[in-house]
Amino acid sequence: MNDKPWQINEAHRRQLGQVDMPPRLLLGPGPSNAHPRVLQALSMRQVGHLDPAFVQLMNEVQELLRYAWQTDNSLTIPVSGTGSAAMEATLANLVEPGDTVLVGVNGYFGLRLVDMAERYGAMVVAMERPWGEVFTLDEIRVGLETHRPAVLALVHAETSTGACQPLDGVAALCQEFDCLLLVDTVTSLGGLPLFIDDWGIDAAYSGSQKCLSCPPGISPLTFGPRALDKLQRRRTKVANWYLDMSLVSKYWGNERTYHHTAPINMNYGLREALRLVAEEGLEARWARHRANAQLLWDGLAELDLTCHVPEAYRLPSLTTVRVPDGIDAKVVTGRLLQEYNIEIANGLGQLAGKVWRIGLMGYNSRPENVLLLLAALAKLI
Predict the structure, then answer these.
(1) Are strands 355-359 and 318-322 parallel, antiparallel or unpaired?
(2) What is the C-alpha R_g of the chain?
(3) 89 shares its domain with 179
(4) How many CA atoms lie within 13 A of 79 on its CB side?
(5) Other C-beta atoms lying within 10 Å of the C-beta of residue 71
(6) What's the domain count of the chain?
(7) β-pair type (151-155, 123-128)
(8) 311 and 264, same structural domain?
């Protein structure tokens, strides 16, 4: 007889089959399909997060990240979390209550930067352009001169629009106005030219699931000397303990001081993804993404489909395509998924119902994927 005053509730007990996902070709804005070698690395046996073998792997991840980003920054690490965690980490560490933050908003992720900065007590000013356009140096200069921000945040590769923000000359303006330059590189790292040091970028973040071909769950972050100086001179504690780089950096630095348990297998996967970048070489990798994007753009033109962003500012990793009059965007994406196992995405925010978003990132940036998608679209439109 059970003499305990409680009994096990069996209402939610389920006998389920093994997980079995459909074989999707992920040609949306992310996640993209992980490289098979990355998936293999993820399945490797675990060690402890302070094991000497893991510490060696941490060093390798940092070095490979520095190559991918073209930086010598000492604080170049993967954050435990998806790209939005690294985005929040940059703001949590570099923004103090009362700081003015100028954000370039020409798409959905500029709006997210605004939201996050406000939550950390910043006086946020949105510098706006229509979705799909980019900011000129003159517009940026006016914004800096007018508002004198502590931080200027720009999205290099706007995933919601497919536009690539030119960064040449922006750092010089930021230094002129004593302002940090923070850049979102989530859809550009590993897919198109990006030079953190040469372009004078003070802080940047990215994601693993786009051009790096690793599943989401770990996100690169880098702080340059000017960003580190602002972090060290803070008058207040970083409001987010988990993402406090003054603490996390001691785990990734020489001290190896425990902060939180690192996602061990995700670091295995990221190391393999970055190893693939180094094997291919950045120049060849950027050229591959560009060539396959051009193949897509030419094929779309043959189908009388128009790209939303002018070619001069168009991302090779993410293309927005205008939905023709009389076509229901969601019907097409639904049929692509159901009939062809191909995922592309619909528009966000101002572009909802107006564009499709097609990603050719990392492992998925291959000619056969482009031709398969074009053939499927030709039957559906």
Answers:
(1) antiparallel
(2) 22
(3) yes
(4) 27
(5) 22
(6) 2
(7) unpaired
(8) no
